[in-house]
Amino acid sequence: MNASATSASSPSTPADASQDADAPDLSSLRVAVIGAGNMGGPVATCMIRAGVPGEQVLIVNSTPESSQRAADDLGARAADSREEALAGADVIVLGVKPYQIIDLLGEVGDAVGQDAVVLSLAAGVTLEAMENALPNGTAVVRAMPNTPIGIGEGVVALMSGSSVSAEQETLVRALFAEAGAVEEITEAQVHAVIGAAGSAPAFAYYAMEAMIEEAVRQGLKRPVATRLVAQTLRGAATMVLETGEHPAVLRSNVSSPGGTTVQGIAALDREGVRTGLAAAMEAAARSSKELSGE
Ligand SMILES: NC(=O)c1ccc[n+]([C@@H]2O[C@H](COP(=O)([O-])OP(=O)(O)OC[C@H]3O[C@@H](n4cnc5c(N)ncnc54)[C@H](OP(=O)(O)O)[C@@H]3O)[C@@H](O)[C@H]2O)c1
């Protein structure tokens, strides 16, 4: 591997990475992205933002035209073939659909360099299954990202296979330094992460949509309603992250006795919104377990 790395650490933010003198040098790293779609694309963007030169990020999609389109969009390079992308790749990102992963690994396994890290984004495909499909000792990491990583406001949960070194773990964290937040988890926790982060942007969009439409019904223009709701939710999330306070404390701070907010909260409780949110997360986690065959 071209990048040198030394230390693994706790959850990081972009600020951590930029201040870390031991951060790996990503400028000579070569990355192959097999499947730069809705998720592989933002992952490539993160890596380029983290410091991998775009011309060293080689994209392979299902057709040369699609590879070129994605590479142009991402500021990366389209590979002429899978072989070209894999030759000398330090990191191989698998952004294809879960059902394609094992067959793909069987096809490309021999072309994976000895020190390369295979980074799978696929839901439901275990580290063990991928390790079994690759030559012995191949370093495999699972990443469970969400789409806001493309704008530096996402979450990536990482799981390392049995052959991943501390240096490789540090490298992968550095590649996601511009993603938003990075968390290391066990594979058993991945289903909970899908409910809390992987599928959760869609839950947030659902809630925003409901709030915007009600604001419109009450007379606000849609663009104004959209800005008010989106900025308010961003502000609320930032308050939680920056104050470290439990959301219940922040909520109580803005709930005057007999005031407007407590009336709204009582309505949320009457309508079962808390139970509904928990049910949505539980359903996503259950579906993830089913995908894994658990
Ligand atoms: N979307 C999410 O929010 C999300 C979140 C977490 C994890 N994931 C995981 O990310 C992976 C991709 O999901 P996605 O939503 O990004 O799907 P997607 O948008 O359909 O992207 C799949 C990509 O794979 C490419 N592809 C298909 N067959 C290929 C082949 N034989 N060789 C090379 N490339 C090929 C496609 O290229 P063409 O466009 O040319 O067909 C496309 O770029 C899945 O494993 C999923 O579990 C997704």
Automatic annotation (TrEMBL):
Single GO term (MF): pyrroline-5-carboxylate reductase activity
UniProt domain Pyrroline-5-carboxylate reductase catalytic N-terminal: residue ranges: 30-124
Keyword Cytoplasm tagged: yes
Catalytic activity: L-proline + NAD(+) = (S)-1-pyrroline-5-carboxylate + NADH + 2 H(+); L-proline + NADP(+) = (S)-1-pyrroline-5-carboxylate + NADPH + 2 H(+)
Gene3D superfamilies associated with the record: NAD(P)-binding Rossmann-like Domain, ProC C-terminal domain-like
Domain of life: Bacteria
Location of the region described as Disordered in the Swiss-Prot/TrEMBL record: 1-23
Main location, first listed in the record: cytoplasm
Leading EC class: oxidoreductase
InterPro entries (alphabetical): 6-PGluconate_DH-like_C_sf (IPR008927), NAD(P)-bd_dom_sf (IPR036291), P5C_Rdtase_cat_N (IPR028939), P5CR-like_CS (IPR053790), P5CR_dimer (IPR029036), Pyrroline-COOH_reductase (IPR000304)
Compartments it resides in: Cytoplasm
Domain Pyrroline-5-carboxylate reductase dimerisation: 187-291
Keywords of the record: Amino-acid biosynthesis, Cytoplasm, NADP, Oxidoreductase, Proline biosynthesis
Metabolic or biological pathway: Amino-acid biosynthesis; L-proline biosynthesis; L-proline from L-glutamate 5-semialdehyde: step 1/1
Pfam families: F420_oxidored (PF03807), P5CR_dimer (PF14748)
Entry EC number(s): 1.5.1.2
NCBIfam families: proC
Function: Catalyzes the reduction of 1-pyrroline-5-carboxylate (PCA) to L-proline.
Entry similarity comment: Belongs to the pyrroline-5-carboxylate reductase family.
Protein name: Pyrroline-5-carboxylate reductase
Annotated organism of origin: Brachybacterium equifaecis
Gene coding for it: proC
